[in-house]
Amino acid sequence: MQPGCSKEELKKAYRKLATQHHPDKGGNAEAFKEVSKAYDLLTGKRQLTRAERAEQERAQRPATPPPAPSYEWESPKTYNPPRPKPRPPRVPEYVEYTYDQYDKCVACGGKGKIVEYCKTCHGTGNSIHGDEHRHVVLERCKACNAKGSRVLFICVPCAGRGSIFVGKLKKGYWR
What we know:
The protein is an alpha+beta fold. Helices cover 23% and strands 25% of the residues. It is built from 3 helices and 6 strands, in the order H-H-H-E-E-E-E-E-E. The chain has helices at residues 7-21, 29-43, 50-60; strands at residues 94-104, 113-117, 126-130, 136-140, 149-154, 163-174. The strands form 3 sheets. It has a two-stranded antiparallel sheet. A hairpin with a 5-residue loop joins strand 3 (126-130) and strand 4 (136-140).
């Protein structure tokens, strides 16, 4: 067969070779299989398998193996990790801060104010009593107006705080 032949010529050639090599007509079974494969491939009914493609590529390659790559020997390189830089010497530092100083008030003895708690609500601001049906009722205390206490005395020099401002002081520490 020549390349570029028509389908009819291909079919005639296949039938001729198939009858010649058919095992029932006394032909070679392997040759018949090869003829059938070739016809199927040429007509597009079948594609080559991976193994068949590899076999064809091996047949097309030249018989001489490719030259082996040449390598030059290099001495092994040693790894020297970078050394950490030493820390600079620590220089101590003095940190100063200021704060307010308070002393106990002399006039009130540090009490600041005198508070009297309500005797009716005991300082809670709520009074509890029962009604005629024995229900518990919670109301705002009327005696102290729900405040719970009343102030009897406020120290004037310390304004009721119990301490007097002396001044600002400086202190510090080494860091």
